Every structure is written in structure tokens, then in C-alpha cells.
């Protein structure tokens, strides 16, 4: 087995060889601890039957662990300066494909069709660029991709919000947006010291396994998400006040909103943070006729 990329010495060597400098604006904090990488791969449950999609390979620290563990890895990297470096560092691995692309603009479904024919179990595994964690996760979940799930590193605070349960301070529309599609669990808290350069915030690894079907069946998904976002617009306000101030013509339709709340058996004085996903589903469906 070749020497790991993810050590402080090797990372410094590679940076020096190519005169590479980190771009903070691209969220470039590279992993320099192989133990963390082994743990990430283990949590993803990868085997040689699996395919892995990576966002942001950097200099290849995680990519090489994915290459060792899976049948094939496809990585999206936005920074062109990293391409010649990756060609060098990943040269021992024949099962890696690097795509020079902004993952937010990429047609990931088409990439999967092209690159993973015959591979049924595909996981997204990444140390995400922190300035765009939420848009990346939401894109990959809402595009109905044939993936089993994701194991990704992100800011600890965002991981807490994603995995939060009703009644907790961090539970909100992001928790619902993600838990609508997945079973969400924080699997590791990661210290700043395993990165070069060290980020300003603490990190965590979160595991999101896609549900067979969404957590609740609703009439209209878009309206369901509008209702959840509206309900958390001002956390200290009651659900009734948030819905009347946020939904289109909500103030005029206050009586309808009260009727819908009653139909969904939700007290108007409750706060959004106390409602479970099934309760939000029932509420959105009860409100639906008054807003369409
Ligand atoms: N995987 C490497 C590691 O763990 O050491 C690097 C992770 S670093 C936190 C994030 C990487 O994502 C960087 O290589 C950065 O250039 C890349 N990146 C940032 N924005 C991106 C985007 N929109 N699409 C694809 N890659 C992106």
C-alpha cells in the first residue's frame, strides 16, 4: 500500500512541490489524519461492490481511501489548480475519475448513468466545502439520484441542526428538509486539529441514509416545505402567528388557518419546534385547499 496522502508531512510536501496555496473562499481545509478517513469509510459501510461520489477531492486525501475501499470513485473538483496534483497523487489508483466541475452546476444524474453502470450501491462520501454544505446536500437529495445515502463532514453546528429532533433548540426547517428524505445521524465529532489549515469551527461527520419513501406522504411537497419554513420564520412566535404572517394572504386567511390547525389537531399556541414531521404533513394537507 502506498504512503497516505493525509499526513501533515506528505500534505506539506505536495503543497511545496506544486506551489499550491489554500483558497479559503473554496472551503479548502484538507484532512491530515488517516484515522479519521478510515472511520469515515467504515461509517459509509463501503465494499468493493460500491461506487462512491465525492465532492471536493482536494489533493486526494479521502479519495484514495475511497479508491481502496470501493469499485469506483467519481470526484467533482471546482479548483482547476488541483487537477495536475490529483493526477500525480492518485496515479496508483485506476478506479478514480476526477471531473473538473462545480457540483452545484453538474448533472449528477447523468454522471451516475455514465460512470456507474452495473454499480447498484452508490454512496456520497465527502469532506464538504463549508461555505456550501447545505446547498450541496439539498441538491443531492432533491434530484432523486440513485444513491443509498451520504456520509459527509461538515460544520458541527449544521450537523446538529440536520439531525435535530422535535423539541430541541436546533430543530428547524433544515432538520425537516433533510429528515423528509433520510434517516439522519451524527456519527463523529471531529477536532479542528485534523485539518490543514484548521477551520474556525468544530466539525462533525453525519450519516444520511435515504428512506424508501419520504417520511410523510403529502399532497404537495413544495407547499409542505413552504409551511415548514413559514412555521420557523420567527422561532419565538406561535405557529398561528408565523403562518398568518408568512403564508400568502395569511392575515386575511387567519380563520382558515385556525380551521386547518384544528383539523390537524394542532393547538394554535404551539411553536414550530414542537411539531413532528407527520404533524407538519397533516397541517400542510389541511391548509392546502385554502391556498390553492
Ligand atoms: N477531500 C479533501 C480533504 O478531505 O482533504 C478536501 C476537502 S476541502 C474541505 C473541500 C474541497 O471542495 C476543496 O478541494 C475545494 O476546492 C472543493 N470545492 C469547493 N467548492 C466546490 C464546488 N462547488 N464543487 C466541487 N468542489 C468544490
TrEMBL record:
<dbReference type="GO" id="GO:0003723">
    <property type="term" value="F:RNA binding"/>
</dbReference>
<feature type="binding site">
    <location>
        <position position="77"/>
    </location>
    <ligand>
        <name>S-adenosyl-L-methionine</name>
    </ligand>
</feature>
<feature type="binding site">
    <location>
        <position position="29"/>
    </location>
    <ligand>
        <name>S-adenosyl-L-methionine</name>
    </ligand>
</feature>
<dbReference type="GO" id="GO:0005829">
    <property type="term" value="C:cytosol"/>
</dbReference>
<feature type="binding site">
    <location>
        <position position="31"/>
    </location>
    <ligand>
        <name>S-adenosyl-L-methionine</name>
    </ligand>
</feature>
<dbReference type="Pfam" id="PF00398">
    <property type="entry name" value="RrnaAD"/>
</dbReference>
<dbReference type="InterPro" id="IPR011530">
    <property type="entry name" value="rRNA_adenine_dimethylase"/>
</dbReference>
<keyword id="KW-0489">Methyltransferase</keyword>
<dbReference type="InterPro" id="IPR029063">
    <property type="entry name" value="SAM-dependent_MTases_sf"/>
</dbReference>
<feature type="binding site">
    <location>
        <position position="56"/>
    </location>
    <ligand>
        <name>S-adenosyl-L-methionine</name>
    </ligand>
</feature>
<feature type="binding site">
    <location>
        <position position="102"/>
    </location>
    <ligand>
        <name>S-adenosyl-L-methionine</name>
    </ligand>
</feature>
<keyword id="KW-0949">S-adenosyl-L-methionine</keyword>
<feature type="domain" description="Ribosomal RNA adenine methylase transferase N-terminal">
    <location>
        <begin position="36"/>
        <end position="212"/>
    </location>
</feature>
<keyword id="KW-0808">Transferase</keyword>
<feature type="binding site">
    <location>
        <position position="127"/>
    </location>
    <ligand>
        <name>S-adenosyl-L-methionine</name>
    </ligand>
</feature>
<dbReference type="InterPro" id="IPR020598">
    <property type="entry name" value="rRNA_Ade_methylase_Trfase_N"/>
</dbReference>
<keyword id="KW-0698">rRNA processing</keyword>
<dbReference type="InterPro" id="IPR023165">
    <property type="entry name" value="rRNA_Ade_diMease-like_C"/>
</dbReference>
<dbReference type="GO" id="GO:0052908">
    <property type="term" value="F:16S rRNA (adenine(1518)-N(6)/adenine(1519)-N(6))-dimethyltransferase activity"/>
</dbReference>
<protein>
    <recommendedName>
        <fullName>Ribosomal RNA small subunit methyltransferase A</fullName>
        <ecNumber>2.1.1.182</ecNumber>
    </recommendedName>
</protein>
<dbReference type="InterPro" id="IPR020596">
    <property type="entry name" value="rRNA_Ade_Mease_Trfase_CS"/>
</dbReference>
<comment type="function">
    <text>Specifically dimethylates two adjacent adenosines (A1518 and A1519) in the loop of a conserved hairpin near the 3'-end of 16S rRNA in the 30S particle. May play a critical role in biogenesis of 30S subunits.</text>
</comment>
<keyword id="KW-0963">Cytoplasm</keyword>
<dbReference type="InterPro" id="IPR001737">
    <property type="entry name" value="KsgA/Erm"/>
</dbReference>
<keyword id="KW-0694">RNA-binding</keyword>
<comment type="similarity">
    <text>Belongs to the class I-like SAM-binding methyltransferase superfamily. rRNA adenine N(6)-methyltransferase family. RsmA subfamily.</text>
</comment>
Amino acid at each position: 500500500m502506498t504512503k497516505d496522502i493525509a499526513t501533515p508531512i506528505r500534505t506539506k510536501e505536495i503543497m511545496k512541490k506544486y506551489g499550491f496555496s489554500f483558497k479559503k473562499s473554496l472551503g479548502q481545509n484538507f484532512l491530515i489524519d488517516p484515522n479519521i478517513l478510515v472511520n469515515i469509510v467504515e461509517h459509509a459501510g463501503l465494499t468493493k461492490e460500491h461506487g462512491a461520489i465525492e465532492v471536493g477531492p482536494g489533493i486526494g486525501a479521502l479519495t484514495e481511501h475511497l479508491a481502496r475501499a470501493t469499485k469506483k470513485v467519481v470526484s467533482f473538483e471546482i479548483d482547476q489548480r488541483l487537477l495536475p496534483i490529483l493526477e500525480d497523487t492518485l496515479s496508483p489508483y485506476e478506479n478514480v475519475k476526477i471531473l473538473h466541475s462545480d457540483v452545484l452546476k453538474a448533472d449528477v444524474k447523468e454522471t451516475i448513468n455514465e460512470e456507474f453502470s452495473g454499480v447498484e450501491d452508490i454512496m456520497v462520501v465527502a469532506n464538504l466545502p463549508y461555505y456550501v454544505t447545505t446547498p450541496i446536500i439539498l441538491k443531492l437529495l432533491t434530484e432523486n439520484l440513485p444513491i443509498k445515502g451520504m456520509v459527509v463532514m461538515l460544520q458541527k453546528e449544521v450537523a446538529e441542526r440536520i439531525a435535530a429532533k422535535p423539541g430541541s433548540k436546533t430543530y428547524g426547517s433544515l432538520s425537516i428538509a433533510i429528515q423528509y428524505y433520510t434517516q439522519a445521524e451524527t456519527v463523529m465529532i471531529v477536532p479542528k486539529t485534523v485539518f490543514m489549515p484548521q477551520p474556525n469551527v468544530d466539525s462533525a461527520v453525519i450519516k444520511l441514509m435515504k428512506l424508501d419513501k419520504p417520511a410523510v406522504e403529502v399532497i404537495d411537497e413544495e407547499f409542505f416545505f413552504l409551511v415548514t419554513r413559514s412555521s420557523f420564520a420567527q422561532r419565538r412566535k406561535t405557529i398561528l402567528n408565523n403562518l398568518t404572517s408568512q403564508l400568502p394572504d395569511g392575515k386575511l386567511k387567519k380563520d382558515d388557518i385556525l380551521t386547518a390547525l384544528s383539523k390537524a389537531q394542532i393547538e394554535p399556541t404551539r411553536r414550530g419546534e414542537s411539531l413532528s414531521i407527520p404533524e407538519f404533513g397533516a397541517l400542510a394537507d389541511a391548509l392546502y385547499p385554502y391556498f390553492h
